[in-house]
Write a structure and sequence with these properties.
By secondary structure, this protein is of the alpha+beta class. It folds into two domains: about 1-65, Ribosomal protein L9, N-terminal domain (Ribosomal Protein L9, domain 1), CATH 3.40.5.10; about 75-145, Ribosomal protein L9, C-terminal domain (Ribosomal Protein L9, domain 2). It contains three helices and nine strands; from the N terminus they run ββαβαββαββββ. The radius of gyration is 20 Å and the shape is elongated.
C-alpha cells in the first residue's frame, strides 16, 4: 500500500514522503496512529494544506527532544539485580525495569518502544542503551547493572 507520511518515521521517511509499505503495517499502525494517509489525489491535496502546520509541529517536537537528550546523555541509571557468583544475572534486564527506574528519576515520557537494546543484558556491568526521542534525535543512557547485596 502506498501512503503519504504525516510525520518523520525512523527508517521509513520524512514528512510528505510517498512510501510503499505492507498493507498490515499501513492499516494497523500508520493509519490507525494518524502517522500517514493513503496516497490518493484527494489526500495529497489535504496534505498540502496541512504541510506547514505539520512541519512546525515536527520542529517543536525535535527541539523538545534535543533538550531532553542533553539531560539524558549525562544521566546514569543504576539497577540492582540478583546474580550468580560469576556475575551472570538470573534472567536478564528488561526494558520495563529500565523504564521504571527512569520514571523514578522524573523521565515520565519514555515508552518501551523508544528504547533500543541491541542484545539482552545478562551480566553485571555497564551498558549504553539508545533511546529514540524523535525520528531524528537519539539519546544514550548509561545503565550500570550491579549485584543485589544479600543480607543474612
Amino acid at each position: 500500500m502506498e501512503v503519504i507520511l504525516l510525520e518523520n518515521i525512523k527508517n521509513l521517511g520524512k514528512i510528505g514522503s510517498k512510501v510503499k509499505v505492507a498493507n498490515g503495517y499501513a492499516r494497523n499502525f500508520l493509519l490507525k496512529q494518524k502517522k500517514a494517509l493513503i496516497a490518493s489525489e484527494e489526500n495529497l491535496k489535504i496534505f498540502e494544506k496541512k504541510k506547514d502546520e505539520l512541519n512546525k509541529v515536527n520542529q517543536n517536537q525535535k527541539e523538545s527532544a534535543l533538550k531532553i537528550k542533553k539531560i539524558i546523555d549525562k544521566f546514569e541509571v543504576k539497577i540492582q539485580k540478583n546474580s550468580m557468583e560469576g556475575g551472570a544475572l538470573y534472567g536478564s534486564l528488561s526494558i520495563k525495569e529500565i523504564i521504571q527506574n527512569l520514571e523514578k528519576n522524573n523521565f515520565k515520557n519514555i515508552s518501551a518502544s523508544m528504547i533500543e537494546i541491541k542484545e539482552a543484558i545478562k551480566k553485571i556491568g555497564d551498558y549504553i542503551i539508545k533511546i529514540n526521542l524523535h525520528a531524528e534525535v537519539q539519546a544514550s543512557i548509561k545503565v550500570k547493572v550491579v549485584s543485589l547485596e544479600k543480607t543474612i
